[in-house]
Design goal:
The protein contains 1 helix and 13 strands; from the N terminus they run H-E-E-E-E-E-E-E-E-E-E-E-E-E. It is mainly beta. The chain has one domain: Galactose-binding lectin (Jelly Rolls, Sandwich). The chain has a 7-stranded antiparallel β-sheet, with no helix packed on it. Strands 1, 3, 4, 6, 9 and 13 form a 6-stranded antiparallel β-sheet that branches. The two termini are 31 Å apart.
Length: 186
């Protein structure tokens, strides 16, 4: 009986790996996903935080800057539009990042006029100057509205994702630096 359960679990795992959608969304070294990025900082609310995104000489994307808590500020973000979305039936996002030890948010937006301000977010902790793989299951994303946890929201449907990005907030004042090698799905 126990052997049959183990074999069934192995079969399910292999099936998931074989049929899961492996899509590369961002990989600057392969010239994938480097267009359509933009910065959105707390200046939209009167803050003075600064940030930038660029491709470094190692062909990785850099998101860096300074988060200030002055003038009710406290966040910096970057996001890219996703056109021709093919993210249906994905299970997880895989991020290969090198950070500064701070906590970042990986964020998603979905299509729909009444949803335009709802973002789905998942935190991840970086290790200072160390490459790590961050795996974020779709079920771990939580809905937020203007930075606050939404009480009600529609389920995150991956086929409706129209933008993704990174954010640093949560009163983490000071310089920040996040290097991103790739973002993929499984």
């Amino acid at each position: 009986m126990k052997k049959n359960i183990i074999l069934a679990l192995v079969a399910i795992s292999i099936n998931t790996l074989v049929y899961a959608q492996n899509i590369t969304i961002l990989n600057p070294s392969e010239n994938i996903g480097i267009n359509n990025w933009r910065i959105v900082n707390d200046g939209v609310m009167g803050g003075i935080s600064q940030s930038s995104i660029y491709i470094n000489k190692e062909n990785n994307m850099i998101f860096n800057g300074f988060v200030s808590l002055e003038n009710n500020g406290g966040f910096s973000s970057c996001r890219m539009s996703l056109n021709d979305n093919k993210l249906k039936d994905i299970e997880s996002f895989v991020l290969r990042v090198k950070g500064d030890g701070k906590i970042y948010k990986f964020r998603l937006r979905i299509n729909g006029s009444y949803l335009k301000n709802i973002e789905y977010s998942s935190d991840f902790q970086t290790k200072k100057d160390e490459w790590i793989d961050v795996i974020i299951p779709v079920k771990n994303f939580k809905p937020y509205l203007y930075g606050f946890r939404a009480r009600t929201s529609p389920k995150l449907r991956t086929q409706r994702i129209n933008s993704m990005g990174f954010l640093i907030a949560d009163k983490q004042e000071g310089n920040f630096n996040l290097e991103i090698m790739y973002v993929k799905t499984i």
